[in-house]
Amino acid sequence: MWGGWLFCLAWVGDFGRAQSIFAPLRLHEASRPDPSRLLGLHAYRTCCITQKIDHFGFAENRTFKQRYLLADQHWKKGVGSILFYTGNEGDISWFANNTGFMWNVAEELGAILVFAEHRYYGESLPFGNKSYTDAKHLNYLTSEQALADFAILIQHLKNTIPGAQNTPVIAIGGSYGGMLAAWFRMKYPHIVIGALAASAPIWQFDSLVPCGSFYKIVTEDFRKGGLGCSETIRNSWAAIKRIAGTEKGLQWLSHTFHLCSPLKTTTDVINFKELLREAWIYLAMVDYPYEAAFLQPLPAWPVKVICKYLKNPKLPDRLLLQNIFQAVNIYYNYTGKASCLNLTQTATKSLGLRGWSYQACTEMVMPMCSDGINDMFEPQKWDLHSYSEDCFKTWGVRPRPYWIPTIYGGKNISAHSNIIFSNGGLDPWSGGGVTKNITDTLVTIMIPEGAHHLDLRANNPSDPISVLQARLLEVHYMKLWLQKQKRVKKCPK
Amino acid sequence: MWGGWLFCLAWVGDFGRAQSIFAPLRLHEASRPDPSRLLGLHAYRTCCITQKIDHFGFAENRTFKQRYLLADQHWKKGVGSILFYTGNEGDISWFANNTGFMWNVAEELGAILVFAEHRYYGESLPFGNKSYTDAKHLNYLTSEQALADFAILIQHLKNTIPGAQNTPVIAIGGSYGGMLAAWFRMKYPHIVIGALAASAPIWQFDSLVPCGSFYKIVTEDFRKGGLGCSETIRNSWAAIKRIAGTEKGLQWLSHTFHLCSPLKTTTDVINFKELLREAWIYLAMVDYPYEAAFLQPLPAWPVKVICKYLKNPKLPDRLLLQNIFQAVNIYYNYTGKASCLNLTQTATKSLGLRGWSYQACTEMVMPMCSDGINDMFEPQKWDLHSYSEDCFKTWGVRPRPYWIPTIYGGKNISAHSNIIFSNGGLDPWSGGGVTKNITDTLVTIMIPEGAHHLDLRANNPSDPISVLQARLLEVHYMKLWLQKQKRVKKCPK
Predict the structure, then answer these.
(1) Mind telling me how many Å the CA of A468 is from chain B's nearest CA?
(2) Residue B483 phi/psi, 5° resolution?
(3) ipTM, 2 decimals?
(4) Is A446 in a helix, a strand, or coil?
(5) What is the pLDDT of residues B14-27, one digit of tens each?
(6) Binding-face residues of B in 117-146 toward A, CB within 8 A
(7) What is the C-alpha to C-alpha distance for residues A310 and A322, in angstroms, rounded to an integer?
(8) Are A420 and A197 in contact (CB under 8 A)?
């Protein structure tokens, strides 16, 4: 079962190998919303709002239904707030159920929770099942349109929920949703009084940060995961190359890795290596301190668990790769239910991935590279030209890598205010994140033991102190904004 | 000769009578750029930059040439600034030649002057002479696209003018250009350190201000212009109605007002009254203290001059209307060269007006109304429904009156900084402008004796003290921003 996706770009069939930034994130069935969680205190209503397909032009005047989830059982009318999740690239119910932080703080902040689905994802499809037909239909899949949807939705909520007219709104999001939260505050400060941007790599664009930082952090995670671990993975690529050179070797690989269909072509081998790379990247991203099923069901501290199999980088090829299989099997088959590993079951079947692939081919161009020295991956240069060619072949559009820094300010964002940028020290995306305070009101929170937006997840007994502190600080800042807002209302200038 | 236009909406043929907000502004030949002014200290180069037709979508990847004017003879490399005129609805050379303020302060601020033409105006036509063909071609005529053009242009200038990389930029504009300057600072604070928004009615939208304020201020100007003046104009409408009721009366009107072609139909009479209304509105807007030819060649304090003919509101119809002719003749024929007054020579021939008409039918919906009691005009309610119908008939689009407050914040703009809102007390647009300080860095400057952005005009011996003070303050604030920018650079946090 394939579902929601999170930062799951550019890996579409053959294309984007060198550009493959985010391998597909596979949402396991176990992480789908459990109806029992939606009862009582965690209950929400599913609602819809009519939105213009194009906020920025007038020739296209048609509308579509945007889905959002609403939970107002904790709302304290008159004193409370609205916590607004700026939905990212996937089914919004998945985000609602993986953002326990908002549910945990709802009562303390007397908050209405709103989870807004991002257009072109989940059920919010501007042209129904034709939404992904071609570049013309995809033309309205941009961050700007998504932010405008959010603005219209908030105005609608304030106008229609009795007593909510003057309720202050705080934007919250993680990953791409975190970028949207930050950008929302930057562009619509009249609509949200502040934003919590968790694990939001708003600087992973153009040449704002070195393209190698992402893979370097992944590698560092595995280096810390156990002696020999990252080295073993680094050596595995050459081992695969040597073994995949013969037909017998291909057979051996297919058998050893329990592949559902045997490796035959060069493309198969590329896809196979992609599968491995995907596993390492996502293990680093979801290296949470407890058993979780965010992307796949995984044990606590999965990188450490996996590294137990990868202690000896000097083994002969076949022994080394057998260990790699043991390790990767934890990622793809922790439950032990899969009878084989499916290479072709790629993410292209997921609307979420397709949407992100398009976004990565237009605005969300995040240069990535590896050199095999500072990281454990095969060397891959950032090649905008071939990236652009691939985008044009796949979607009929060309990326504009300069655009995000132009419209959202790049590193020059100090004129804005009331944004918390939180980052996990283990999270590869922290390399493109804001990790140093910019002003008194553009603040950062580092969670050294945190993976990808751990702070947005529900409280857990295994949480490291750093994430508990982060959540306390986040609530502290939100309360500050709310208090300031109240003061402004009581004593207008 | 018909040329540039300034706030010249919605009056297209029959349509928009009730909605006619801005009558066409007729740019007289005398106000066209005089080549001799462009020499020496006032010289500029005409340049072009390639811009994406659509910054906010990727299906349309074509480009067009945007024109801008560049004057760098006053630039002090290393310490100077860039003053950037955010071009509005007309030929940019006209604005360059009517914004003497920028030329006057260029040396003091060591500034490069840039005047950027607004897309779809002047020579900056995205689809050449097909730009106005239909709603599809007009789809990229929005304030957001114009701001994006400006952002791209500034980045281009900084990247290509040697030594300009770190030069701080200040946005300056008047009227709609003033709105663009303010909105530019709000949305792109990483690109401009501040903005001077002169006579920018950013609140003349939705129901942010009463729809009657505009005509009330026009009326007040004529009331102050001389005893009986506004009352005479108020009485003229009924007089016209009475006289236009007979064929003989129509002949008399046509003859008395020296019309080029005689009044015959009801539409003719409507157009005739429109011509009068247009004269009164623009006289109020350009009530400058010296002879000027901003829209039409006019004497100093033209409202006072005209009011000399309008002292007796109680005269019989024909005598009263003869006086009205004397008055309006000052506006349309101050030079005395016109042999007759042409009703059909409407502004629809001007690209500038057509563009503004489209903008007024999409984003720039500025509700206007008159009641004949608090103002001297015929009662006209604001009727969005018929406005929308007319827009659809004319352009195939429907207005979205909520959009400008949604995207630019309406009255809730206190999160922004470094914007000067200047307003003239005589200017009817001041009713929709920001006339009270919002924060320490969102400041207003009132010029009681000022008409429409008098402060942006060149120094003149007849300038009232209030406008001299305004210009001093404006330069003072700009220097503050520049100094702060320098401090930030020297001592980064």
Answers:
(1) 28
(2) -65, -45
(3) 0.90
(4) strand
(5) 233 333 333 333 33
(6) 135-136, 138-140, 142, 144-145
(7) 10
(8) yes
